């Protein structure tokens, strides 16, 4: 029986490294990149589903922009995840560097979102909260994976 169609037996561990990272012979396992992309795609689908439900259920001047921006971020996250599936296998240092750069950008998203959230206009507050929520999740996601590689 193959694991994820990659020719690995079902008992093959997904994490192989003396340091506890996701390494396989000094290279980031292709399955690691797929796992990261799958996790991001799941988040994207949850955002899109929540956005559709939220937009359908509310006309509020704060929550409607919140759900709209959540849907926009869901589309962006889905595109990034899909690109991750199609992309080339990275060396551990390259993937770790990419995740740390993303973590830095995530802090900017949080700051920008909180800045908008403090504005008096409900539309901007809704956009700001959605951006800050995305930034917080993505920061945790990127840090978790960067520290495991």
Structural features, described:
With 149 residues, this protein is mostly helical. Helices cover 70% and strands 3% of the residues. The chain has helices at 30-57, 63-86, 92-117, 122-148, and strands spanning 23-24, 27-28. The chain has a two-stranded antiparallel sheet with strand order 1-2. A hairpin with a 2-residue loop joins strand 1 (23-24) and strand 2 (27-28).
Summary of the model, kept short:
This protein has 149 residues and is mainly alpha-helical.
Widest sheet, order of strands: 1-2
Helix content: over 70%
Strand content: under 5%
Largest sheet: 2 strands, antiparallel
**Number of extended strands:** 2
Structural class: mainly alpha
Round the Cα radius of gyration to an integer and report it.
18 Å
- Along the chain, the helix and strand elements come as EEHHHH
The low-confidence parts are 1-20
Shape: flat
Number of helices: 4
Mean pLDDT: 85
**Distance between the ends:** 27 Å
How are the SSEs ordered, and which strands pair?
Layout: E1 23-24, E2 27-28, H1 30-57, H2 63-86, H3 92-117, H4 122-148
Antiparallel strand pairs: 1-2
Helix pairs in contact: 1-2, 2-4, 3-4
